[in-house]
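I am still getting used to backbone structure tokens and would like to learn alongside you. Label the sequence line and the structure token line clearly, so we can match residues to local backbone shapes. Would you write everything just below, so we can both look at the same thing?
***
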Amino acid sequence: MREKLYFYYTNDLHSNFDQWAKAAGYLKEAKEKRLEAGESCWLVDIGDHVDRVHPIAEAFMGQANVGLLNDAGYDLATIGNNEGITLAHDDLFHLYDHAEFEVVCANLHSLDHRVPDWLKPITTLTSFNGVNIGMIGLTAPFNAFYELLGWHISSQYTALEEYIKEMKESADIIILLSHLGLNEDQEIARRHPEIDVIIGGHTHHLLRYGEHVNNTLITAAGKHCAYAGEVILTWDHQEKKLVEKEAYTTDITKVAKDLQTEQKLLELHDHAEKIMGENVVNIQHPIEISWFGHTPLMQQLTETVKDWTQADVAMLNAGLLLDHFPSGNITYHDIHRICPHPINPVVVELKGDELLEVIRASLTKDFMELKLKGFGFRGEVLGRMIFSGLKVETGFRPDGDEYVKRVMKNGEVLDMDRTYKVATADTFTFGRLLPEVAKSERKDYFLPEFLRDLLAVTLRKEYGS
């Protein structure tokens, strides 16, 4: 006899709730049909379901996301970096207290040696006909952030070495839920051919029909639940082995919304607005915002970041603020809407010549007009860089390009050999946006405060009565 085992999965929703009612409807219907037909079926999530860019995730600190997974009938999940490093320690510790599904993550550890009741390194699922499927979860090791929040992420390879042997003794099939990214998934498949399937995420890669590396089938379904993933495994009970592995992704952007989920989201949104409706400050006149110019509020926020972090200088891109503040009462909901990014302050050490190069790069047209997606940035364009603790004098060439004439600190030209502590957005410590910042040997992140928390501080200080 041959038995088919069905896994439907999502990854990297990032609280894109406009799509969630469609995903929930599609997945609930798929699972219901399989179970009615007597087939073994599970729903799993690969992490980054939570993203505090959305007011529902912000107001409930991710617990509403968990409730939505419960409502959709999920069986299993692992955590992503957005669950892991955008929540304070206690918020993550209790995030899944009311989950009606299992949570597996073998490389997440609390530095106080307490283990959340919901956290398991591995688990076993059993099909209707007795096939045992060992499940292990892993998440990306952003320890520069995790350790400031009281957690540690151990090496994925150490965790695999520890648990794969145990799983092989009791499981017929081994599946890894990986929030590590495609390159790591491929490397794991090369090192551990005993893993039958890797369901992945984190790098938002879309593998429409999966890919095979050695003995392992790797799959992932992009981002924001535009696609739902499906893995079909065929187990031969006579031969006692897996004889077929298939992976598919389905575009669900045109499917009907699940009405119950849509109603729940509307209720959650109303509740979130009430939670975040606390007044922060009352302003007499509108506060203007400009992505490509200098505005008082952006300057004041940059100065707040400099003072908060006790840095020598600070620099923030004006695209962090998405809209004007109207006159009247300003609430936390307004601040979240205008500065939704899950971005923390960071201080890096740069030599004067490196800082000068960063300033030059940040004032180029290409940088200011870059429509960045990712690295925590949830805006439209990066915008103009605003500085505190520095006087940056610029000019314009005949072709209209801006250039840096000189940079002064405390009335003196920037010292090329001196090391400066530079506060900025943690966005620039990733990738190649500002290479000198990303390559800095010392990076001190400030958690759990987001830049919008410092925006609230700035508004109270500068505009409060």
